[in-house]
Amino acid sequence: MLDDHELQMLNPTVLRSKVFLFPQDIYIFSGTIKENILYGNITAGIDDVIRAAKQSDMHEYVKSLHLGYNHKVGDTGANLSGGQRLKIGFARLFLANPDIIILDESSSMLDLESEKTIMDNIKSHFKGKTIISIAHRMHTLRSADRIFVLDQGEFVEAGHHAELMELKGLYYKFMGTYVDY
Fold first, then answer.
1. N or C: which end of the chain has fewer CB within 10 A?
2. How many CB atoms within 10 Å of residue 76?
């Protein structure tokens, strides 16, 4: 179900417009930083692009470039760090403003400070929307409403952080090896 509609009854184009899949590896197209961010919403204006870049912690870097948002990036973003490519992806996400977000190891190449900033902005910006986060970094999961723990492809636990810690199961074991930032 999606907003009281059965998924099979929805037009696939409409369904795809409501979902944003954020993979581990963000593809960067040959073009400018602005064009790459606009991939999230091609009708957005430059003010929207800048706002999205600020939310994704990319704006300060872009400002430091001679051509700013018109800076050319090569195909696959070879002249950008992994974290900068992810930040462009997060800017796309903010610009797209979908109803359902699937984050697949989306912060794997970010430093902890950038990750915290972006995740706080996601919680604020997408409040009330569905976010599915697939993660091995435990701190990205702690504030989730519901956590599903998989082991060997099987669901073994479900609940929020405190409930899972009380169970003292697999989640608890993972958290025991995790150091908070």
1. N
2. 14
Identify the helix (H) or strand (E) that includes residue 114.
helix 112-125
Q: How many structural domains does the chain have?
A: 2
54 contacts: CB under 8 Å, gap ≥ 6: none
Residue listed under structure tokens 């059965």 = 6
Domain that holds residue 144: 138-181
Distance CA 92, CA 53 (A): 9
Q: Residue 126's pLDDT is what?
A: 93
Q: Do 118 and 56 meet the contact criterion of CB atoms below 8 Å apart?
A: yes
Under 8 Å between Cβ of 16 and 68: no
For residues 144 and 161, the answer to whether their CB atoms sit within 8 Å is yes
- Tell whether pTM > 0.90: no
Strand-pairing partners, residue 133, are 103
Q: Encode pLDDT of 99-140 as tens digits.
A: 999 999 887 788 888 888 998 999 999 998 988 888 777 777
Mean pLDDT across 29-39: 96
Q: Are residues 169 and 121 located together in one domain of the fold?
A: no
Same domain, 78 and 90: yes
3-state secondary structure of 36: helix
* 123 and 38 inside one domain: yes
Looking at the structure, do residues 72 and 144 belong to the same domain, yes or no? no
Extended strands (E) in the chain: 19-22, 31-32, 72-73, 100-104, 130-134, 147-151, 154-159
